[in-house]
Amino acid sequence: MSGLEHVLLALQALRANWLRGLLTALGIIIGVASLVALTAISAGAQEGVASDLRRLGPNIILLDGEFVTLPNGQMTATDRTLTRGDLAAVAQLPAVTAVGRRQLVEMTVSSGRRQTTTILTGIDETFQRMHNYAAAQGRLLTAADDREGREVIVLGSKPAQRMFKGAPAVGRTVRILSREFTVIGVYSTKGNLGPDDLDNQALVPITVAKRVLFGGEAIQGADVQVRTQAQVVPTMDEIDALMAERHKITSGSGEDFSTEDQTQIITAAAAATSTFKTLTLALGAIALVVGGIGIMNIMLVSVTERTREIGIRKALGAEPSRIQAQFLVEALALCVGGGLAGVGIGLVAARMVAKLAGWPTLISPPSLIIAFVSSVVVGLFFGYYPARRAARLPPAVAMRYD
Amino acid sequence: MDGPVIETTAVHMRYASGEMSVEALRGIDFVVAAGEFVAIMGPSGSGKSTLLSILGCLERPTAGSYRIADEEVSAFDERKAARVRRERIGFVFQSFNLLLRSTAAQNVELPLFYAGVGREERRERTRAALEAVGLGDRVDHLPRQLSGGQQQRVAVARAIVTRPDVVLADEPTGNLDSHSQDEILELLGDVHAQGATIVMVTHSREVAEHGTRIVHVLDGLIDADEAVARVAW
Ligand SMILES: Nc1ncnc2c1ncn2[C@@H]1O[C@H](COP(=O)(O)OP(=O)(O)OP(=O)(O)O)[C@@H](O)[C@H]1O
Ligand SMILES: [Mg+2]
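Above: the input record for the complex with adenosine-5'-triphosphate. Below: its predicted structure, written as C-alpha cells.
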C-alpha cells in the first residue's frame, strides 16, 4: 500500500468524523494562532526599537535647560536657562557634529471647526536633519523658512489626520492662538521616543515659534549629535562640565540643565519589550502545549471510541504498523491543517491588532515556521502514543468492546 | 489440498482477569478437512466463539497446538497473525461488524486494501463481490441505510472478496429473520460450493444442517461430532 493510500484512508476517517477532527484541531489552531500573533506583536515592538534608532537619529544627546527661577523663587513659564552662547560653546566640543534647537509646548491647533491638541515644536533645520525627518506630503522646513520667519507648519500624521481626515493637508491653513500658519508638509511617521508620541507634533521654524508663540530669549532645549555611539557618554560629561562652568555651578548648588542619552531612552523601552517578548513567547508555548494535550486527549478518546473499528480492521488483516500509521497520519493531518489555519488566523489577528490598537507588528517567517513545525511535532508526539495503544489491541478483545 | 486445513491439538484457552480466571476451552482436538462445511453447536458460554476466534487467529490459545495447512500458527505474533487472517481467512460475525462510517463498497474493499491489491483490481473485485451477494445497487450505501440482512450480505461479500481458503462465521444468522437467514445460508452454500472451507457457529439445528458436519461443544470440550445426512439436497 502506498503512502498516498495511507493518507487517503486517514483523511477518509477524518472526513467521516469531521466534527471531532475540528475540535481536535481547534487546540492546535488556537495554540499556533496565538503564537504567531504574539510573536508578530512582540517582534513589532522589538523591531520598533531598532528602527526607532534609525528613525530618530543616532548618537544624540538631549540637552535641556531648566525653567528660569526668578529672584522671588517663582519659575517663569517660558524662559529657560539655556542660551545661544551655551549652544555655541557646546558646538565647539570636538566630538560634536551638530546642535539642533527645539522649543516645544502643548497647544491647541485648529482648522475650521476641527481642533486638536498637539505638541507644537519650534525647530531649526539642523534638528530636522539630525532626527532624520522625512516628508510624507509636501516638504520639510528649510533654513530660509527660519531666516525669513515664514509662518509655515509641517504636521505630524496624527494632527494632520485629526484636522483633515485624510484630505490633502498641504496648502491649507492652521490656526494657532490668533495666527494662521500655512501647512507646507506632513512628515513620515516616527513612532514613540520613550513615552512621547513623536507623530503628535507640529513643526514650525524656531524663530517664528519664539517670536509669535513663546517670546523670551532663552532656549528650551537642544539636541547634540556626536559622531559615534562611543562618544556619547564622554561628550555628555564634557557638556556637563562645560555647562557647569558657564553657569557657574559649584558642586552642591543645583544644576539648571540636564543631559540625556537618546539611545538610553530607546533601549530602556527595549528592555521592557524584551520582557514582554519573553512573556508572550511563554504564553504562546503554553497555548501550544494545551493544544497538544487537547489532541492527545481526543486521540485517546477516539481510540476508545474506535476500538471496535480497530478490531475489525485487524480481523480483516491490517498489521499493527498500519493501524499505527493510520492514526499517525490522522494526527499529522489534524496538526498540519490546524497549524496552517492557526498561522492564517494568527496573521489576521496580528493585522487586526496592528490596525485597531495601533501597535506595530512584524511578521517574521522564522516565527511562522517555528509555530508551524512545533505544532506538527506536538501532534506527532501526542499522536504516537494513542496510535501505539490502538495498534496493540488484540482483535478479539477489541471487537468485543462496546 | 489433501491434508486438513485446520487442525487443533489440546487447545486450551484461559481468560484471567485479576483474581478471576475462566477456562473457556479445556483441550480441543478439532480437525477440518479442505472443503468441509462444519457447524458448531452448543449451549451459551460453552466456548464456541472462543474456539472460532482462535481458529481465526484473533487471539492465541494459552496452550496447545493450532496448525493451518500444516503451518503452526498458535505462537504467531501480531504481524504474522495479521498475514494469516488476510491471506487465508474470511470472517462473518453475528453483529455484522461493518465500519459504520464507511460505505458498503469501502467495507468490502478493506481486506483487499490491507492485502496490498492495486486500486483498479480492488474496485473490480469489490463490485463483483457485492454483485455476488445481490447488492450491486447498494455500493455507496452506509450500513445504517441497509437492512440487517443486507448488512450481513455486505459482511459476506467482505469475507469472500479475498477468496479465502476458510470462512469463519459466528452466528451469521443470529440477528436475522428467517427470510434473510435463508439468503445468507444460500450465499454460504455458494461459497462452499466454490471450494471454500466453512466453519459456522449456530444455535439452530436447522441452520446447522446446512453444513456437512455438526460438532457439539460443551463446557470447553468437544462433546459430539456427527455427519449430516444429505437428504433434501
Ligand atoms: N475476553 C474474555 N474474558 C473473560 N472471559 C471470557 C472472555 N471471552 C469469553 N469468556 C468466557 O469464556 C466462556 C466462553 O465464552 P464464548 O463467548 O466462547 O461462549 P459461546 O459458546 O460463544 O456462547 P454464546 O453462545 O452465548 O455466544 C464464557 O464463560 C465467557 O464468559
Ligand atoms: Mg458466541
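Notes for the reader.
The beta strands of chain B are 4-17, 20-33, 37-41, 63-68, 71-72, 89-93, 166-170, 197-201, 213-218, 221-227.
The mean pLDDT of chain B is 93.
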